[in-house]
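fold-stage: in
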Amino acid sequence: MIAQKLTSLYFLDRSLARPTTTRTFATTVSAGEAEASSEAATTTEAPKPKRRFPKKTITVKESDIEVGKEFVGKVKSTTTYGAFVDFGAKNDGLVHISELQAGFVENVGDVVSVNQEVKIWIKSMEKGRISLTMKPPPTEEEIAQQAANQQAKFEARQAFKLQKEKQSEVAGNLKKGAVLEGCEVKSIQNYGIFVEIAEGVEGLVHISELSDDFGVEAKDVANVGDKVTVRVLGVDGSKVKLSMKEKLDVSVCLTVFVAV
């Protein structure tokens, strides 16, 4: 009887203890989850505030930007290839390193620095990009001089062209063995003399064709301004072969170029 009561008390005690253990375990898990949630909330970074840039003051309208127009601006930044300048337009312009000044520039920092006030001119505009220059544009006098120089070069080329045409015409009319008298000596060189065989057309008589004598120097044969007689040894385009020898020896003649 006593043993039966003890067994009943044993099972009753276990049944009473079981809910307590379950409740304790549930309480422990809930505390762990709370701690993990707290740590996660602590380690999560707050969102960074958006960076605000100062609003740019636009003083130059897009319609006012024209090639060649002058403005005053301030250098905002520099790079290895140039400097960006704020001259009041919506977009900053770039002064390439080659446009900082006349002549070669090795380092941009040698010419300009950030926040420096500079005078610039609009060089070109393309798809919102503005190219600037710090080289002053040419004056009216300089433009006129450039035009005059270009005209002079053009005329010189035309004169050269006409001269070459005339040389070809003169050479084409010459025949092998023709004797040309009264040719003026224009210059004397160590290798021969230049004589004018027609107006504005000079030919070279090589030193080997100056005389039948051996070892003759050009200065011993004629002087500048002398009138001499030459023979045509042959014609090849604008090249004319000349000789001052009394006896014509075509086999030993040298090619003489018509000089301009």
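fold-stage: in (second)
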Amino acid sequence: MLKIENKALYVVDNAIDADLNEQLYRWALASGRPGWRYGDVADAKYSKNRFWGATLVSADSEDGDPKTVDEAEEIVRKAWAHLEPRLKPFTFDIRDIWLNGQTYGLENAIHTDRPSEEEGWYTVLIYINPEWHVDWGGETMFYNQARTDVVYAVVPKPGRLVFFDARHHHWARPPTRNTQDLRITLAFHLTRRSDSPVP
């Protein structure tokens, strides 16, 4: 596991098999529930640029979204059941599950997934496009604490998992003009259980 500024980050290729990856992708594109919305913003403090999103689970939901993975659609439960063992020996509770979508020109901003320096919050991204080429862009860029340098970059690949401490500054780059595809990630926002070791 890589540590950048003493915060965990690691990448696992083929974290989900090609069949499940394809199922997730097709479901995401056709998803009418909970449905895509345009207007999500990564960090309004730095940018008001919008992108596509869909809330699948939210522990704080007040508008009818599932509050736990057990209430989520079958494909989401299947994805988590497939991923959870790959995170061992660490154990987590799910706070949120989202779909994020970007096409060419849909920039967001450098941000963290946890605005405080409190340890214990983590993010898992799964790239679910069944095909992706390096010249299509869409990298997830990780920055130093000062937000002045890129310290790590992850290229989307089908079924690739990125696990990181939610305090990491990062930026989902949009696809280039070389593709008209929607770059889709399935994102899990997690809290570390008290009996779990620290990643």
